[in-house]
Specification:
This protein has about 180 residues and is mainly alpha-helical. It has three domains: about 45 residues, no CATH class; about 30 residues; about 90 residues. The chain is built from seven helices and no strands. The longest helix has about 35 residues.
Length: about 180
């Protein structure tokens, strides 16, 4: 017979057919409130079993069936969004984009490095001071390129962490606006 008196974890475990350690785990998980009566523990334990049987609570306190279904549906939706964006030409893999940007950046850097010699040959009348101004301007342009690329990448990463397409677009627009 169940009473309204407090019961030890070992006694409750014997009553419902689980170990004292399992009862201790239930107390630690907050399913059973320490110091509650035997009847309260039995009601809480039965409620937990009903939730597990209905698929609303994981057996180990992890994700439940509804959460698993929602997670699966979300992943499927994201997959479809990526596929549609790819078909519209609005999406490319990060690897492809990184390789393209690296190749373009390397080409620009090589041309910048060749520019002083090309200018000396094409414009021998340029003074050292004029050449310094040109090189300083080129260095500023190169540094701005690196800064804008880093800002764009940071905005894209921040938007991806939010995982919101509207925030993604806004972050990219902000990066573009800040670069102007």
């Amino acid at each position: 017979m169940v009473t309204d008196q407090q019961v030890t974890q070992a006694e409750f475990g014997r009553l419902v057919g689980i170990s004292q350690q399992a009862v201790s785990d239930l107390v630690r998980a907050g399913v059973l409130v320490d110091g509650a009566s035997e009847a309260e523990w039995l009601l809480a334990y039965c409620a937990r079993l009903r939730e597990q049987a209905a698929g609303r609570a994981g057996a180990d306190g992890g994700l439940n069936l509804a959460q698993e279904r929602a997670a699966l549906a979300r992943e499927q939706r994201l997959g479809i969004e990526i596929r549609n964006a790819t078909l519209r030409g609005q999406y490319a893999s990060i690897t492809l984009l990184a390789e393209t940007l690296a190749t373009a950046s390397q080409a620009v850097a090589e041309r910048f490095e060749q520019l002083p010699a090309t200018l000396r040959k094409a414009c021998p009348e340029l003074t050292a001071g004029q050449m310094d101004v040109i090189m300083a301007t080129l260095a500023t342009a190169r540094n701005e390129w690196v800064r804008r690329t880093a800002d764009l990448a940071a905005a894209k990463i921040a938007a991806a962490e939010v995982d919101d397409p509207a925030a993604d677009a806004a972050a990219l627009e902000d990066a573009d606006a800040g670069a102007d």
